[in-house]
Amino acid sequence: MPRPRFWLPLISAGLLAAGSLSAAAQQPVKIRAGWVTTPASLIPLIFAKPGLAKHHGKSYLFEPVYYAASPLQITALANDQLDIAALGYSSLPLAVENAGLADLRIIADEIQDGVPGYYATPYWVRKDSGIDKIADLKGKVVATNGLGSGVDIIMRSALRQHGLEDKRDYTVIEAPFPTQKAVLKERKADLIVTALPFSYDAEVLEMATVLFDSRSGFGTVALSFWTARQGFIAKNRAALVDLLEDYVIALRWYLDPANHREATEIAAGFLKRPPASFQDWLFTNKDFHRDRNAVPNLKALQDNIDKVRDLGYIKASLDVAKQADLSLVEEAVKRLR
C-alpha cells in the first residue's frame, strides 16, 4: 500500500527554511568603525593595499566612519550607530562614566605616544622667548587644541608637576593643530603643542624649541585604541577575530621597512598630500609607537586614567583590566604565528 505523501511539502518547506537560515548565517557582518585622524589611525587605510585582507567581504564588511572628535563616537556607540570606536585615555572614562557604557571593552591598540625610542608629542616655545624651563611659564599664555583633550591634559599635568595651575598661574587659549604655528609666530601664546605631521614643519623647527614633551609630562600615553560593546562582541566574535587578523596583517605590512615607500604613498594619496611629507617619519621610530600585534598597553592606560582623575576631569578612576577583552586580538595573532 503506497505511503501518504502529505509529508513531502513539509520536508520541502523545512529544507527551504534551513537553506534560508544557512544563507543568512553566511552573510558578512557589517562592522562600522570610527576614526578621527589618519595616518595616526589606520582604520581608513587597512584595505588600501590590495591582497592583505583575507576575510574582508567574506565574514565581515568593514565601513570606516569619520568623526571630528572622540565624544561624537561615544554618542554614536550609545545610539548603536557605530560598532567600533577609536578612543583614548581621556575619552574612555567619559564613555563609561558619563555615557553609561559600562559594557565597553578595549579590543585592540592603535597608537601609543611617548614610548621610549619613538615619537613624543612636543610642546614648543619661541627660541627668543627667554623661557628655559616649565616654571618660566608662570604668568604666560599657553595654547591647547581643545580643553580636556589628550594633549591638553598632558600639558596641565606637566605644569602641575612644577607648581603651576590653570587660571592662577597661566592662561589657556584654544587653537586647532593647523593654526598652532601661527599662534606662536604671532606671539598670541607663549607655549604651543603640535601634532603629526606639524611637528616636523621646517618653520616650527627654525622658530621654536621643545620645552617638554608627552614623555616627560606624562610618560607613555595610551593615545588611541579600538573599543566595542560587549553585546556586539558576543554576537559577532568570529567576524571580529577575522577583522583583527586582517588588521594585524595590514599593520605589520605598513611597519615593514621593505614596504616604506609604498606605505607612505598610500597614506599621502588618501590625504592628497605629497609623499615627501611623510617619507622621513611615517611608520618609523619618528612616528607614534604601533604595537605590531595590536596589543594595548593596559598598564600605561591605567596610569594615564589615574592622572586624569588626579587632575579633576573625572570623579573616579577605572579598573582598566575590567574594561578590556584582549582574547580576540590574542586569538587573531595566534593564527599568524
List the SSEs and their pairings.
Elements: H1 7-25, E1 29-35, E2 60-66, H2 70-78, E3 85-87, H3 92-98, E4 104-113, E5 122-126, E6 141-144, H4 150-160, E7 171-174, H5 180-185, E8 192-193, H6 202-207, E9 208-213, H7 214-218, E10 221-229, H8 230-235, H9 237-255, H10 260-271, H11 298-310, H12 327-334
Parallel strand pairs: 1-2, 6-7
Antiparallel strand pairs: 3-10, 4-10, 5-8, 5-9
Helix pairs in contact: 9-12
List keywords for this structure.
337 residues, alpha/beta, D-Maltodextrin-Binding Protein, domain 2, 2 domains, 3-stranded antiparallel β-sheet, 12 helices, 10 strands
Structure summary, number of beta strands: 10
Determine the CATH topology of the largest domain: D-Maltodextrin-Binding Protein, domain 2
Helix content: 25-40%
Element-by-element helix/strand order: HEEHEHEEEHEHEHEHEHHHHH
Report on the structure:
The protein has 337 residues and is an alpha/beta fold. The protein has two domains: 204 residues, Periplasmic binding protein-like II (D-Maltodextrin-Binding Protein, domain 2), CATH 3.40.190; 97 residues, Periplasmic binding protein-like II (D-Maltodextrin-Binding Protein, domain 2, 3-Layer(aba) Sandwich). It is 36% helix and 17% strand. The chain is built from twelve helices and ten strands. Helix 4 links the parallel strand 6 and strand 7. The longest helix has 19 residues. The N terminus is likely disordered.
